[in-house]
Structures are given as C-alpha cells and as structure tokens.
Amino acid sequence: MANSDESATIYQVAQRAGVSIATVSRALRGTGPVAAKTRERVLRAVEELRFTPSRLGVSLASGRHAANGIVFPDLSGPYFAEVLLGYEEVASELGRSVIILSTRGRAAVPDLVRDLSRRVDGMVIFGQTVRDDVVAEIVDSGLPLVMIARDDVAGADVVASENTVSAARLASHLLGHGYRRIALAGGHDNGDITQRWTSVGQVLSEHGLTPPEPSPCEFTVEGGHALGRYLLSGPRPEAIVCADDQVALGVILAAEELGLSVPGDVAVTGWDDIMAARHARPALTTVRQPMRDLGARAARALDELITGARDTPRSQVTPTELVIRASCGTHPLEEA
Amino acid sequence: MANSDESATIYQVAQRAGVSIATVSRALRGTGPVAAKTRERVLRAVEELRFTPSRLGVSLASGRHAANGIVFPDLSGPYFAEVLLGYEEVASELGRSVIILSTRGRAAVPDLVRDLSRRVDGMVIFGQTVRDDVVAEIVDSGLPLVMIARDDVAGADVVASENTVSAARLASHLLGHGYRRIALAGGHDNGDITQRWTSVGQVLSEHGLTPPEPSPCEFTVEGGHALGRYLLSGPRPEAIVCADDQVALGVILAAEELGLSVPGDVAVTGWDDIMAARHARPALTTVRQPMRDLGARAARALDELITGARDTPRSQVTPTELVIRASCGTHPLEEA
DNA sequence: TTGTACGCGTTATCAC
DNA sequence: GTGATAACGCGTACAA
Where is the HTH lacI-type domain (chains A, B) (predicted)? Predict the structure, then answer.
C-alpha cells in the first residue's frame, strides 16, 4: 500500500517527531537518556514511517559489517551442507549474516575471496579450497579467520575433526577381520583425507604390509561408483577403505552391479556417517564426524576472534567415533 | 608482513600519489579523463598501499549492496542445496554476493528476513518458508523479490517447476500398471507438493477412484522410513507416491525391512531425481526437476528486476520430466 | 535532556 | 586534466 519505495531515513523520523537525529538514535538504541514523552513521539514516527536503520549507515558508523563469510567447494553431498547449516545457525544467533562463496574450482577464486573479505568481519574457509598464499594474505590483512578441516595455519584458528586415531582404529579393525589386500578409494587432498591415508598406511606398515596407493576419484556417489567398477574388475581387494561415505555408497553400488556381495566378497568402509550410511544396505561401517558441530564451533571461534574475546589463534580437534556396521564384515572382532 | 590492520583509504592513496581523491577514483574506475602519468602514479600508490575500495563506502555512494539474499528452510537433502548452488553460481557471475538465511522453522524468521532485506539489492525466497504477510511487506517495500516453487505472488517474480502435468502423467502411469490402491507419502505444504497431490487426486477421480488423503511426514529419508513402516504395516497399498525422492528412498528401506519387494509387493515413486534416485535399488521412478537450473533462473530473474531490465513481475514454470525406472513396476505400459 | 556537527569511505557533480 | 565538495545514512562526542 504505502509503497514509499525509498525507505525512510533517520532524518525524516527526526523531522516527523520534531527532534534531532541524535535523539532518534538514542531513543532507538537506548544509548543515552531520553524523556519518556520524547521517546514515545519518536517511536510513533518510526512506526508511521516504517523506519529501519540502513545497514550501510550503521556499518559505516560502527565499523562492523555484522556479517561473516564462509568459503566451501560445493554443496554436493551432506558434508558441506551440514557444516554450513551448523555454521549459519550459530552465526545467526550471534546476530551475524552469512555470506557464502562456493569455489567449485573456479579460477577467479582469489579475487572472489578478496572481495568477500571486504564485506565481512571475519571468515571461515574450508581447507584446500583457497590457495595458501591467498589465505596468508587474508591473515596478513588482520581479518579474523577460521580454517576448517586443515592442518595448522599461522595466524588463523583451525577447527578440525580427529582423523589419525580413528583411521588407525579403522585399519586395525579391518586387519582384525583378516583382510590383507586393502585398497584406498579417493586421492590425496592434502587435508583430512591425506591424514586418514597416512594413518591407515602406517598401521598396515606396522603389520608388515605395503601401504597401498590411494586411487583418486571424485568425492561423490558417482565417483565412487566409477572407481568401484574399476577396482573390482582387476585383482580384487579384500577391503576398500573409502575417503567418505558417498564414495563408499558408490563402491557398494558397483559391487552389486558386478554381482559381488558386500561384505562377503569385499568389505567397504566410509567416513562421515551421513544419514544414508545407516540406511544403506549393507549398513555402512564408517567414522562419525560431528558435521554440524564443526560448523557451530567454527562460528563460535570466529566470534571470539571478532569480538576480541580471544586474540591468539587456537586449534581445536573434535573427536570422531568409529561406527561398526555390516559393510566391513560379518564377524566384528574388536581388538585393543 | 606489512600488517597494516586497518586497510588504506582513498585519501591515503591520494596523498601518496600527490593527487585528489577524485582523481584516484577516476583512475581506478575509468570514469573520466586521467593523464597517463597521473594514472601511473595513482596505480603505484594503490599497489604500495594494497588499497581496495571499502565495500561500505562504495555501497553507500552507489546505493547498491552488490549482494542478494536467499531464504530456504534447511539444507538436508540435495534439493535446496542444488538450487542454492545454481543460484550462487549465477549470482556470483553477475558480481553479486549471496547472503543465506536458513529458517529451520525458527520463530524469529520475520525479523531475520527484514534484517536481510536491509542488506541486499534483492532476494529470493523459497515458497512456504516465510509468512505471507512478511512476503507482502517485502514486496511493498519495493525490494526486488523472486519466489521459488510457489504459486503466484502479486508484485514478485516466481520461478517454479511444473507439477500438475507431470503428476498427472505419473498417476496415469501407475494406473496403467493396474494399481488402484494408491497412497500419498508426505503432507500438504501449500506449494509444490500440494499441486502434485491435487493433480494426482484429480486423475484418480477421473478413473472413479477416491483420491487418497496424503500422510504427513518429514521430507527426509528418515521421515519416509518411519511413514513407510506405518503405511506398509496396515492394509497394504499397491503403490506409494512420495512427495520427493528422499521420502521414497526411506519407504523403500522400510519395505525391505518388512520383507516386502519393491516393486513386486508395492510400487514406490519419488520426485526430484536426485542423484541417489538413479543409484537406488530398485532404481527410482521419479520426476526430474532441474534443480540447479531453478536456482540459476531465480538469480537471473532477480538480476533483471534489480537492474531494471524488466519492471513487471513474471512467472516462469520450467518443465519437468517423468523418469520411469524400476521402482514403479516391471511392465511399464505408457499410455496416451 | 536535547541538538549540533563531525566522521565513516566512497562516487559524482561541478568549477577551474 | 584535475580538485573541491556535496551527497549517501548513521553513531556519537561535545556543547548547550
């Protein structure tokens, strides 16, 4: 109805209420004494004009954007979506908007990240989505920064899930099943995945086995499906340890298509414990990673950095949990 | 290294280059004549000071945020994530940042949406995530608005997928299989889903059948799983038409747990054609919805509204496609 | 208790 | 070709 198109400014409110803008500001923000009568007049004017302070004005004056950024590769699959959700939830509770940037391997990422950094009070970056020199640039600029799922970065907070211990447990468990020919599905990423492969490799070495070279694939169901068909067509491994649950689901699919039974002919394990892992058939042995919590922690850590509640970077590793289900074998024999 | 913490302003650049801020602005934006020598000095100063124009300053002066908002319920499941991805991709190509707001049924949504509306040049809202009066408020404020998956809204663009025709095709196909006792999994939502149920009901009516009442459930695998167990425990339907693929996957899971064969004992269909639909066993009969494209269209429509390339709202419906796979029955008999 | 005036960092319109 | 200077919308010392 009253489509004013250009929304009211604090000056119009002041004029209508017959006061100065300073009084309007005080009345609205409770940042100083205002006579009851005056406040009432102001509030009425605000109401009538449907006044809301301009974000730009507020930000310019306060020096704060009240917005955070988050950089991730994509949203295919539950992992990034869940983390993002946990992040948004907390950020929004803390009164901060969330600006997203999906890299998808684009060439312009550095510029996009710089751009983003100019419109937020701090940002979160998933490991391996942004070049190290650009990350360093952000740190150097003094912008509060939290990295997710990455090894330590000088000057930035890190929030990560525990990988080494769980990967070792997983490897030990598979050895306990008697498997010796173990394949790794999903290539190195210099982050989470690499930590897992290193840990698995170490355990195998300790048992006199040659650590297998991970086979690269896209971290999607389709990627796992394609790689699974390949791995299961040659000399068949006894177990396939997958980089994440999606890859594992794809591998299981490939096995079924090839007429192989899981875990009868080949054991398969995942990582993350996405919802489908429990519902898959066979149910997926995996490592539970608190995805939402990861995002929530990142948001809180970033808030501390922004508000200055803390000024020294901190690195926190959240525990993960080996979840034994059916896909890794029918005789679970857990060892010390 | 040169951690200046507070980044340089245009005044500092001007001073260092020995010119006025107007010249710096012109040199940087090419919005007026600048002597070659002068430009060079300016650019060197910019380089040395690592100057980037403040977003707030630019926005305040230009009157544009160069940012769009998007409001969705959550990111569980591929549907919203895919649409969001398509949206972000185009928005970012158009030089606009994306600010997200996940409602998750929070009570504070109206305020959060108002807040969001103050920091963007336009926004996209998924149908049924924001109260109608709040939507009207946004429209009334003159902010460019695009609604996704919703029936028409006065004053706003709408981008939706075709539901009625495909739902009718799906229903006819199931009737062609000979099914008469058909259940609907997933309650009304006053949007997409309701359109589908209405259309299915109509086809059944035309064939002398009583349109079934849809059974509500969460639109997740778990929701479908729970509802599936319920529906398949009582008098068993011959076919279960699900609100989306996730629900369908859950229902299939429930059937397997109950020792029922799909489609032998009960046919199941989904909607969306998410990646898992093709990989499911049995492969899911569903309706393919161009999710990324939906987001991309929304971003482009919003851009038209913002730039003023178009000033009258438009409603576009993108076609969908019935995808017959194994889950609906073994003897596909497509009819006219 | 209230009002004036300045600062925040740009862009753009004028004169020169 | 260049430089003052007025917006843009707000918060807030400081003065009254």
Answer: 8-62
Domain contains B224: yes
Report yes or no: B239 and B179 within 8 Å, Cβ to Cβ: yes
User: Quick one: tokens of B71?
Assistant: 């409001």
Cβ within 8 Å, pair B101-A97: yes
- The predicted-structure confidence for B161-219, as pLDDT tens digits, reads as follows 999 999 999 999 999 999 999 999 999 988 899 999 999 999 999 999 999 999 999 99
- Give yes or no: residues A91 and A233 share one domain: no
The token pair at B271 is: 């909607």
How crowded is residue B248: how many other Cβ atoms within 10 Å of its Cβ? 32
Q: Could you tell me if B44 and B71 lie in one domain? A: no
Q: Structural domain of residue A186, as residue ranges?
A: 164-288
CA distance B220 to B224: 6
**Residue B336, in any domain of the structure:** no
User: Do residues B325 and B171 lie in contact, with contact meaning Cβ atoms separated by under 8 Å?
Assistant: no
A101 touches chain B (CB under 8 A): yes
**Which amino acid is present at B290?**
P
- Report CA(B76)–C1'(C14) in Å, whole number: 56
Q: Tell me: the pLDDT tens digits for A18-28?
A: 999 999 999 99
How wide is the angle at C-alpha A321 spanned by C-alphas A319 and A325, nearest 5°? 170
Distance, in angstroms, between B214 CA and closest chain A CA?
Answer: 24
3-state secondary structure of A146: strand
How far apart CA B75 and CA A82 sit, in angstroms, is 7
CATH of the domain at A35: 1.10.260.40
Residue A297 within a domain:
yes
Closest C-alpha among B210, B206, B165 to residue B184: B210
B54 shares contact with chain A (CB less than 8 Å): yes
Q: What is the pTM of this model?
A: 0.94
Residue whose C-alpha is closest to residue A169's, from A2, A326, A336: A336
Q: Is the pLDDT of residue B128 over 80?
A: yes
CA B37 to C1' D4 (Å) is 22
- Which one of B4, B112, B222 has the shortest CB-CB distance to A92? B112
Q: How far apart are CA A333 and CA A323, in angstroms?
A: 13
Residue type, A217: C
Judge whether B52 is closer than 8 Å to chain A, CB to CB: yes
Cβ contacts (< 8 Å) between B53 and chain A: which residues?
118
CA distance A2 to B137: 10
| B145 and B284 housed in the same domain | no
